[in-house]
Amino acid sequence: MSLVFFLFAIFILMGVSSLSASAGTGIVIRPIHLTLDADGSRGGKVNVINQKDKEVTLQASIFGWQQKKKGHDVLVKSNDIILTPPIMRIGPNEQQTIRYALKSGISADPEREKAYRLVIDELPRSPSSGGGLSLRMRYVLPLFVGGREAEAGPLELFYEKQSDKCVLNVKNSGSRHAKLLSVEAKSNKNTFKFRAPLYILGVTTLALSCPTEMKEASSVEVLNVESDVGNFSIVINGRDARRP
């Protein structure tokens, strides 16, 4: 009996609604930033294009999305949003549209945004007799519901440097998501880049670990932050710093 082992390659797709993404996999998805309006009465759609030379089978699922303090996503299977179709076969150079809408009885809050992830998994083909390793793709897209009247931010940052840790805490006190586009720290000799881009959901605080080489630096003088709710710099002068 032959065995086939499946390895997931996960692509977290981030961007604005006018962009598309393929991640070099032969599958093009557009748009990659999904929303439902405040009352959820109007649905949305995602176009999936197969640029491979063979048929693919995909499965779409919805997960509720929360964040732990260290930036890890927590995804829980959700039935709040209906997907049509949930499973699809797409031939070479063909396209399939996935439509999504709030389930009957589920409402969207205009004053508070709710976050989900649309997850599209590539299902395995029939295993060959020789066995081996098969690479499966997973595409993860953000989907935000409601929050038309909500605002993101202001963002609050607190940088902490001790002998055994180096952390940048970022708090989004608004009820709508914000997006960190770039975060970098500068010393007198080097520039250190944090993990970005990165979503910060509403009413959430993330603790971002400093890059490894930054932990070994004797001091950090300036933190530069770019986000979709504003850009700013923090002068540290070797001490813990807070903004605003």
TrEMBL record:
Fetch the InterPro entries from UniProt.
Ig-like_fold (IPR013783), PapD-like_sf (IPR008962), Periplasmic_pilus_chap (IPR050643), Pili_assmbl_chaperone_N (IPR016147)
Q: Does the keyword DNA-binding apply?
A: no
GO biological process terms on file: cell wall organization
Q: Does the keyword Signal apply?
A: yes
Q: Name one cellular component (GO) term.
A: outer membrane-bounded periplasmic space
- Per its UniProt record, what PANTHER family does this chain match? PILUS ASSEMBLY CHAPERONE, SLR1668 PROTEIN
User: Under what name is this protein listed?
Assistant: Molecular chaperone
What species does this protein belong to? Emcibacter nanhaiensis
Taxonomy of the source species: Bacteria, Pseudomonadati, Pseudomonadota, Alphaproteobacteria, Emcibacterales
